[in-house]
Amino acid sequence: MKRVQLFFFLFALASAQKVIFGYNATSALGNPLRGYVGYYPQSAANNKRFPNSMEYSYFGLGDLMTGENTYNWKSLEDALVYVKSVGKQLIMRPYISYPDTGTSMPTFLTQNCGSTCVTMISYSDYGGGLIPDWKNPRMTSAMTNFIAALGAKYDGDQRLALVQVGLLGYWGEWHT
Predict the structure, then answer these.
(1) Under a CB-based contact definition with an 8 Å cutoff, are residues 131 and 123 in contact?
(2) How many CA atoms within 13 Å lie on the side-chain side of 128?
(3) Phi, psi of 54 (to 5 degrees)
(4) Which residues neighbour 27 within 8 Å (Cβ) at sequence distance 6 or greater?
(5) I want to staple 166 with a disulfide (CB 3.0 to 4.6 A). Which of 66, 93, 108, 114 is the partner?
(6) Angle at the Cα of 155 from the Cα atoms of 153 and 157, rounded to 5 degrees
């Protein structure tokens, strides 16, 4: 039995070496939705640096959402046009709070809304910034509306590999 196991181990090792040494670094791997991921838009200037089938990018909710049910998809659409032009797909993560970089809060939730405005809370963790009151009903409604609108517009769009469940927490990673 140990000889059989040793044989399969050596066979697997030899096979792995064939794959490693037979790798063609000039073309993308034939594994959609797997492998290296470029970071758009920085990788757009260097799209031939390494083979990859996907590009990754954050999108601020404040850039995408202009009203309770109105949206500006331009930044997302620009990224999708680019990835399609180079034969790739996009991974997107919407966010609101990005520590030490900024907050992308839709202005209609924080300005000219009187007592219904979403309160922004200052924090110092991870370099600091502002984070919204997640329990505010307008905040939860805005996130729900955005998710529904994004799904309605881009469901089945082959340019979009996946949408990471962001929005909530620092970097859209659900910790606050």
Answers:
(1) yes
(2) 2
(3) -140, 155
(4) 51
(5) 93
(6) 95
Query: Environment class of residue 116 by beta-carbon count within 10 Å: exposed (0-12), middle (13-18) or buried (19+)?
Result: exposed
- Tokens 């340019």 sit on residue: 159
CB 108 within 8 A of CB 66: yes
Query: Residues, the chain, total?
Result: 176
How far, rounded to the nearest angstrom, does the alpha carbon of residue 29 sit from its chain's CA centroid? 21
Q: Which two tokens stand for residue 161?
A: 């590999």
Q: How many CA atoms lie within 13 A of 70 on its CB side?
A: 6
- Which among 53, 57, 27 is positioned nearest to 39, based on CA atoms? 57
List the chain pLDDT tens, one digit each, 176 residues: 555 444 444 444 444 443 333 444 445 555 567 777 888 877 766 656 567 788 999 999 999 999 999 999 999 999 999 999 988 899 999 999 887 777 899 999 999 999 999 999 988 888 888 889 999 999 999 999 999 999 999 999 999 999 988 888 877 777 76
